[in-house]
Amino acid sequence: MNQFDITYFHGPFREFITRPEVIADIAASGITLVPLGSDTETNKTALRLLRRYGLRGEVHDPRIGKLYHDEDIAAVDTVVREIVEDYAEFENLIGWDITDEPNAAKFPILAAIVNAFRRYSPDKETVINLFPNYASPEQLGNPDYITHLEEFVNVVRPHFISYDHYHFLGREKRNAVIDSTVDERERLIRLSAETTVNRGGFFENIEDIRNVSLKYDLDAMLIVLLTEHGPYRNLTYGELLWEVNMSLVYGMKRVSYFTYWEPSYDEHWQWTNAMCDTVGNKMQHYYDVQSINKVIKPVGEYLFGRTSTGVYHIGDTAEKGTTAFTSCGKVQGIDGDCGVIGVFDDGSMYLVNRDFLAPRTFVIRTDAALTVMKDGVFVDAETNEITLAAGEGVLIKAE
Q1: Which residues pair with 225 in a beta bridge?
Q2: Which residues, 6 or more positions from 357, have their beta carbon under 8 angstroms from its beta carbon?
Q3: Residue-by-residue pLDDT tens, the chain, 399 positions
Q4: Closest CA to 14 of 285, 284, 280, 281
């Protein structure tokens, strides 16, 4: 990654992605990086349009999907070279989208594809999104999640680590029937979603990703839930903000929403409440995300060049993967409850309200001058007592 970007997983259908008004809406939402997954000519037309609106793009060309599906390693070099040459004119193309949630059996073909893109497209990234930690060993192709992460990094040699984790369940209207006609991969995904309360393991998952990315000097990205579907409920503004700020506090270098565009109707998943519906009408989440993106963009840009040195919890640390905050640098302690604080190598700290339902107040105990980021710049704090709305965060320094 070469800058902080805000992106999404699943965008406008082929017949919409080349319409100027659709691209204008994407740009106005605060999205900066657009994934494209149509045929080659549609992708090219869309890239030209993205360029007019100052947007960057990543491409999943159908030939990439065929290489991955066929596992034809002998063909990789020739096909990848052809793809790179086809898109050579687009300076706003920053990478190649390879696949989503691969089983470990696919790692050898992924390694070949990534290696070929490194040779023929050295200035661009490749994107491979991984399963979350609630995927079964059958889905992973590995006995446990850490083994899966380590094998992925060492075999595939990715440009960065991307994964998804959808925490908020409990949707009232849902179809829990697992249709026997779906393929095995889809059946396992549906089974892994079958629960009725907020899913555990969020902090363990993001801490594992953080640790592995630091170990191998890789950037990381979390795809967060946005669109109501299956067992996943319609999120509030506070819950959306919580997800994004948890990404930043743990040092993720890119934010991604699932989804921007509502997918086609599916009897099982029953998609609704995306940012836009199936024909591009803006829904409430469009305005929620637009507001959130304005708030988090300067924070993400500031933290992009910083390295996470620790993430600590204020209050309850019972959940696996959490560590209690005691003191750090010139901050002797923080009074309060239900918070998370990320510490970075320049001494900055990102304090986030872990409560996605209600505001929380924190008192920073320090003898140093306390500054907070407002509108992209650090200013003197009026008080050491900070109240954060549900899911809200604030970037601070004590110097």
Answers
A1: 258
A2: 238, 390
A3: 999 999 999 999 999 999 999 999 999 999 999 999 999 999 999 999 999 999 999 999 999 999 999 999 999 999 999 999 999 999 999 999 999 999 999 999 999 999 999 999 999 999 999 999 999 999 999 999 999 999 999 999 999 999 999 999 988 765 454 455 567 666 555 555 444 457 889 999 999 999 999 999 999 999 999 999 999 999 999 999 999 999 999 999 999 999 999 999 888 889 999 999 999 999 999 999 999 999 999 999 999 999 999 999 999 887 888 999 999 999 999 999 999 999 999 999 999 999 999 999 999 999 999 999 998 999 999 999 999 999 999 999 999
A4: 280
In this structure, what token pair is assigned to residue 2? 């070469």
Q: Enter the tokens of residue 314.
A: 């204020």
Residues 299, 393 contacting (CB under 8 angstroms)? yes
Angle, CA 185 vertex, CA 172 and CA 103 arms, to 5°:
125
CA distance 294 to 399: 27
How far is CA 131 from each of CA 103, 111, 134, 149, 188, rounded to the nearest angstrom?
A: 9, 17, 8, 10, 12
- Quick one: which of 283, 277, 272 has its CA closest to 174? 272
